[in-house]
Amino acid sequence: MKWSVIKTNRLYSGFFKLTEMMLQHELFAGGQSPVLRRELLNRGQAVGVLPYDPVRDEFVLIEQFRVGAGDDPAGPWLMEIIAGYQEPDESAEQVVLREAIEEAGCIVSELEQIYHYYSTPGSSNEKIKIFFARTDSSGISGIHGLGHEGEDIKVHVLRSSQALEWLDTGRIDSAMPIIALQWFRLNSERIRQQWL
Prior knowledge:
The chain is an alpha+beta fold. It contains three helices and eleven strands, in the order E-E-E-E-E-E-E-H-E-E-E-E-H-H. The strands form two sheets. Strands 4, 5, 6, 7, 8, 9, 10 and 11 form an eight-stranded mixed sheet that branches. Strands 1-2-3 form a three-stranded antiparallel sheet, with no helix packed on it. A hairpin with a 4-residue loop joins strand 4 (45-53) and strand 5.
């Protein structure tokens, strides 16, 4: 199946870019679609990591303000995994190492990529890589983030049972930590055997 872009028009250029596209694509039943108008939010490659201490059986999670959750009755501060956007000259693994220190003061090792997926392909090209990593959670705490980026990030070190309870009760309600914690639930026995 093929598709073609007829025309593009940049509508906005800031932290993200918004482009209007006129396009056509082949149809499953044969032939071409009519000319379609779509907006594409260019977000790029995001990378997240769930640090785990197998000795203490603890996760390092972060909490921060998220404007997209502004209408949530619980408020716009979400429990998340460490994450950031990949720069053109960076590997995904380099993003993990950089963001773990910036957002949580956390040193990670033994990275394992667990998923690579599109977050909202109906309107955005953002593709996310999620990693699982080993850490020593002792002494990890505090408020982190880069002030010049407006980051105000609170670190939470949680027993795995508490994190999974927060997942099951909806306290954790954004996609990246849900996916990472569900992966852990399915792979915890293997991880603990390998790392202990």
